[in-house]
Specification:
Length: 165
């Protein structure tokens, strides 16, 4: 009888463990898109046609672009796994953290490796070590080489993000 109880307990723990692992892999969607069609979804505001810029253009000559509205195409490397409250965008060798103006919307947590089009402004910030650690934890980054570093950083603050299908 004791053996049957332990067998039941082991099976229950296994099911609970698998359920917990599955729950961690679930997609979190805290915002609904404002537009959805066969080509993708738009979060935040509707896209506006601002001056197009690549990440390379923005990041290699930031003084010319700081605080100015731009339309930027990029690919998503990683997304905040907790809420989708920011992501890392990249284009070739260039990458930048993208947050959302006034924390007004979130993106789904499963958009890594997807193309995005954003209306955003390039900003310069001084990122504390505590905030950098927080961002790295939310991204699940464990390798120092991949980590967001504290100090003076450039970021994009988006008002609109179109996730292409």
């Amino acid at each position: 009888m004791k053996s049957a109880f332990y067998k039941y307990l082991k099976v229950s723990l296994l099911v609970l463990s698998l359920t917990t692992l599955q729950a961690k892999a679930e997609v979190i969607r805290l915002s609904e898109p404002i537009e959805r069609d066969s080509n993708g979804e738009t979060f935040g505001n509707r896209l506006t046609n601002y001056q197009n810029a690549t990440l390379g253009t923005l990041l290699s000559n930031p003084d010319s672009h700081l605080g100015k509205d731009r339309t930027v195409k990029a690919k998503v490397a990683k997304v905040c796994r907790k809420k989708g409250c920011f992501f890392i965008a990249y284009d070739g060798q260039y990458s930048v953290r993208v947050s959302f103006e006034n924390y007004a919307f979130f993106v789904p947590t499963d958009i890594a490796n997807r193309n995005v089009i954003m209306n955003a402004k390039l900003v310069s910030k001084n990122l504390s070590e505590k905030k950098a650690d927080h961002f790295n934890k939310d991204l699940g980054i464990q390798e120092p080489a991949d980590a967001i570093q504290s100090g003076a950083v450039l970021e994009l603050v988006a008002t609109s993000v179109r996730i292409e299908s």
